Amino acid sequence: MKFLFDDESFSFEALRSAGYIAYGGADLGEVLVTCRQIPEGDEDAWSAQWAATAARVERAGREALAAGHRVSAREALLRASNYYRTADFYRRENPAADAESARLAKASQQTFADAAALLDTPARALRIPYEDTTLPGYLFLVDDSGAPRPTVLFHGGYDSTLEEDYLAVAAGALRRGYNVITFDGPGQGGTVREQGLHFRPDWEAVVTPAVDFALGLPEVDGGRLALMGMSLGGYLAARAAAFEHRVAACVLFDGVYDLHEVLAAIADRAASTPGGPEALMAQNTQARWVVRNGRWTFGVSGLDELVKAGEAYTMAGIADRITCPTLVLDAENDQFFAGQPQRVFDELTCEKELILFREDEGGGEHCHEGAMFLFHQRTFDWLDTVFAS
């Protein structure tokens, strides 16, 4: 689904940022005027223009807050957070030494934290115990009654951030009476940038401490705790649910069967490209970003090591260990994991459902970007039904 750019990756990321209009994370005019100043495939211009828009919107939010306009401040700061995240997206050549990348990430975190403090519903920053450290998270509550409610435990995937999690899932869940716990696991958001934690395939080692933490909160109904993972999180959540059986339902948003296949396909393309991997990286925005982001988040030095690391990220021989009801989402035009949700679904032996989002209904992109209301309608209606029974 082409959106503003011919470059497939730019089109998708612009759609992703714009799609959060649904919950106040963007404004269409701001997206349009930002994108029209970015040449096709120009990552430097992408970062500069999104950063400029973010700074302008943040200033408006700060001025509104100083003047006592709480709603206006919240709305502007929430948009700024999303725009700062978008500005940082392609800055992956060497994030550890990129001062601008660090600045943008910190600005996204801070503007979101300031917006969260202004929400109409309670939001609390968390530190979830994990091995010898903690993981950053948020607890979003429907109200301040302290009553236990069905709760979604949510994490992202290959590149998502804790701040994005609110727009991607939490805002829609709150409207339907669900409390939500979001967190960054190893390899994600602030954990890789600030703590040097990298992805691990045995994601149950991450989710089990999060479940322990969740079950200790009075606002969490332990019998109605759902685990949900986005993008690569569709593998991570499935892997965790195969070994952590205290979750009452699992949502794979979307289903991922084998990460190695995706990475190996990039390596094969690189090998067949005249000039090799360097030529492919120069020519293809998406391949370049996948490899650069993977080097950072997996803690590897190059494409060959990334492909090797991906071998452990598979649901083969594991999917049938999931015992809770599981919803597998699929996207007709998924450019990353095409066909994989069906493979996960076929190997599940638990109560299960597969929902395909079609191109002709606007939901065919990876993780249904641009179709937030449709995604939330189908996902939470399923979850309502499962918990009611």
TrEMBL record:
<comment type="similarity">
    <text>Belongs to the AB hydrolase superfamily.</text>
</comment>
<keyword id="KW-0378">Hydrolase</keyword>
<dbReference type="Pfam" id="PF06500">
    <property type="entry name" value="FrsA-like"/>
</dbReference>
<protein>
    <submittedName>
        <fullName>Alpha/beta hydrolase family protein</fullName>
        <ecNumber>3.4.-.-</ecNumber>
    </submittedName>
</protein>
<dbReference type="InterPro" id="IPR010520">
    <property type="entry name" value="FrsA-like"/>
</dbReference>
<dbReference type="InterPro" id="IPR029058">
    <property type="entry name" value="AB_hydrolase_fold"/>
</dbReference>
<dbReference type="GO" id="GO:0016787">
    <property type="term" value="F:hydrolase activity"/>
</dbReference>
<dbReference type="InterPro" id="IPR050261">
    <property type="entry name" value="FrsA_esterase"/>
</dbReference>
